[in-house]
Write a structure and sequence with these properties.
alpha+beta; 2 domains; four-stranded antiparallel β-sheet; 4 strands; flat
Length: 111
Amino acid sequence: MLFFNIEPNIAQEAATQDPYIWLEEIESEKSLNWVKAQNAASEKVLTSNPLFDELRIKLLKTFNDKDKIAYPNLVGDLVYNLWQDEKNKWNQVHVKLSPVKDRQQMQRTVF
């Protein structure tokens, strides 16, 4: 039986296969500058479209609609709902379900 002790430099190998592997360092100055440049280029293209202002108004109206439907996720005995609107830029609501015998009773916590 032959055994090979091959320990390739995985990071170096990945860098040669993926020229953007450096973006995995999400807080590095190089990555953040690249993202800012990409965002600026995208914003320039989007805002130059003649339909931009009209679509922006329609989308903001939908985003801030008071009658929108919540889409909660059940995770174990917790119900999570991430909610954003004009007043709450990031609002996570989770409800802890009571034990099976009292499953109808719930407690609401807003972060």
